[in-house]
Design brief:
The chain contains 17 helices and 19 strands. The protein is α/β, with parallel strands linked by helices and 482 residues long. It has a 15-stranded mixed sheet, sandwiched between helices. Strand 15 and strand 16 form a beta hairpin. Helix 5 packs across helix 6 (104-111), helix 6 packs antiparallel against helix 11 (317-328) and helix 13 packs across helix 17 (466-476). The longest helix is centred in the first third of the chain and has 29 residues, at 2-30.
């Protein structure tokens, strides 16, 4: 009996030694952040076998190389090389080139794989999810050729059913409908609803399915994008998912504060391209026909730049633009993000902004929906308060907007939170606006949100209990995956 136990223990030790010999080099090669690398090495060393499995599931941020290759091939159609920023450089150039040359953040975004700035767009901002959802349904109802949708979370509830009914009606009318959802975010999307959509002619596909028979399970890499494109001419994006709670119909969350945007004009092609890349990766169908990318006339006065980011990038576009925008701010840096778990570089940039006298404000949650993320955020609130930033907790309901405002003429709205998950692990999409009136509209709404919020007093917050501090410190250890 003892001999059998000893042999099993020896076998386990040999297996663990082999896993350590294989996994530790992978950790060292893949994790550029030394703190993250050390943390994973300790997990692998101190948790026999289990540590290696945890790294395989949660730490190995691997995406098939063919996706990155396809994206580079697709993107070549949109990239434009712009000259350096000199006063004479934009004489005689188009408005799009003028914006790119004049605004340093536009140039930086191009350098880190952002789409080119496009002019001639009409932009409608929605600060309430109900009119945003109704506008989206109305646009889908008017579709003539195709409807493309992707969401992180889709619920099988009254809101999800309303959307499904519209999609089925359009599919029966001969419109091509493609629906992409994240397999983890929409884990509870019922098979019954999926079957109904399939049977009705809607092409439904999941992103990185949680099925080991189809591919290696990627729990840690999720598609957090929300995109709707209708006929290649009108698009929607922002923070809203599909479900009753996102329309303020949940007793748990109450009023749901989110920001969604409708775009008409040339910038729609960039959002269409993001969807087509994701669809090609998930469903294997290439959407490169001319009818998906029609020639679009000018629809409005606005310059829009679309940014996509994800773990398939060598340099994360959202993270680099966030960092550059913080450094570029001269007067105002207002951030709305339900989750605030910045890396050291972002935190240092915020500190430098305050030292330069920039008005730094963070709008975040009062009532948490995710325990770990909320309490890790509280740990970083203390840093922000310490160097003079202002933190507000939204008290009216759930604050889910993802907004960054810089000075008077630059704003970003999209799906990225200011946390490591959004800026390193998730697939995200954001829209940058170079227009004073749009920035002013977002700033006015931000101030309204502050009036519905509780400002954190630095002295009072510093008096929180030892138990609360320990909880925050424990939760922030998970920062690399939050």
């Amino acid at each position: 009996m003892f001999a059998d136990f000893l042999s099993q223990l020896t076998l386990l030790a040999l297996m663990d030694g082999l896993l350590i010999a294989v996994v530790i080099p992978v950790v060292l090669m893949k994790k550029r952040d030394s703190t993250v690398a050390v943390a994973w090495c300790l997990v692998v060393l101190l948790m026999p076998v289990v540590g290696a499995l945890l790294f395989w599931v949660f730490g190995f941020a691997h995406v098939q190389r063919r996706r990155a290759l396809r994206k580079r091939q697709h993107r070549s159609r949109y990239r434009t090389d712009y000259p350096p920023s000199r006063p004479e450089a934009f004489r005689g150039r188009s408005p799009s080139e003028t914006v790119t040359v004049c605004h340093p953040l536009a140039q930086i975004a191009l350098q880190v794989d952002g789409f080119a700035v496009s002019m001639g767009n009409a932009v409608q901002l929605y600060h309430d999810t109900t009119p945003a959802f109704e506008a989206m349904l109305s646009a889908i109802e008017q579709a003539q050729h195709h409807v493309h949708l992707q969401f992180y979370i889709v619920r099988d509830d009254s809101t999800g059913r309303r959307l499904a009914e519209v999609l089925l009606r359009k599919a029966r009318a001969g419109v091509q409908v493609r629906f992409l959802y994240d397999s983890l975010g929409s884990f509870f999307l019922s098979r019954r609803l999926q079957n109904e959509l399939h049977a009705g002619g809607v092409r439904v596909c999941s992103f990185l399915p949680l099925n080991p028979l189809q591919s290696r399970i990627q729990v840690n890499l999720r598609n957090h994008r929300k995109i709707v494109v209708v006929d290649g001419r009108i698009a929607f994006t922002g923070g809203m998912n599909i479900g009753d709670e996102y329309l303020g119909l949940s007793k748990r969350f109450g009023y749901w504060r989110d920001t969604f945007v409708q775009i008409r004009g040339p910038a729609v092609a960039a959002l269409q391209r993001v969807f087509s890349e994701d669809w090609h990766f998930a469903a294997g169908e290439l959407l490169n026909a001319a009818e998906f990318f029609p020639e679009i006339e000018s629809a409005g006065p606005y310059a829009v730049q679309v940014l996509e980011s994800g773990p398939d990038q060598e340099c994360n576009t959202s993270r680099e633009v966030y960092f550059a925008a913080i450094l570029e701010a001269k007067k105002r840096l207002w951030i709305a993000s339900p989750y605030f778990v910045p890396d050291n570089g972002i935190l240092d940039a915020l500190r430098l902004a305050r030292l330069r006298g920039v008005d730094v404000r963070l709008l975040c949650l009062l009532r948490p929906d995710h325990f770990l993320s909320f309490h890790a955020s509280r740990y970083y609130w203390s840093d922000l308060l310490h160097f003079g930033g202002q933190v507000y907790q939204y008290a009216r309901g759930m604050m889910h907007s993802k907004i960054l405002l810089v000075d008077d003429n630059w704003a970003m709205v999209g799906t990225s939170n200011l946390d490591n998950r959004s800026l390193r692990l998730n697939f995200e999409v954001n829209c940058v606006f170079y227009a004073e009136d749009l920035v002013q509209e977002l700033a006015t709404q931000f101030e309204r949100d502050l009036s519905d919020s509780i400002p954190l007093d630095p002295w009072t917050f510093a008096q929180r209990s030892l138990w609360q501090r320990l909880c925050e410190n424990a939760c922030r250890l998970f920062a690399p995956i939050l």
